[in-house]
Design a protein that fits this description.
By secondary structure, the protein is of the alpha+beta class. It contains four helices and seven strands.
Length: 164
Amino acid sequence: MSKSGVSLAPEAIAIAERSLTVRRHVAASRAPVWALFADFPNLADHWSGLKATRPIGDQTHGVGARRRVELKPVGALVETVTGWEDGRMLTTRNQPSALVPFKQAESRLILEPDGDGTAITFEYRYVPRGGPMGRLTGPLIDRMLRRDFESMLAAIAEAALNAR
């Protein structure tokens, strides 16, 4: 039982949040890969999987930077940087619009040296909309997100190779 007196069954908590991880090796050093991700407000310039991205406010780098992401085919979300280790790691908290099939999400991007290049790991955790229906839609959302995130990493890899 929690301090508030509310008792949640462990399976209710475990089912609510979903997570997935995608990885990719890039035959480029971390510097050009990081430069693309560190261009935080302009991800849509490097990946055609989004309609548009734009900064919110004047801060475009580091903890507290925010961007509005227009998704394909519909929907939007606001991403806020919650963690930033220059050249190595970036974490965000995402607040989606009502048209997005999940109600909140967090991401973590990690870059590590990997032989002659860089290993990119992208982790995404989210809570589907719809309560119990979220259990049914979760696997479908997982497949959609995995496809999109693999496409994003492929586009970043290509852009990093072209930047060398």
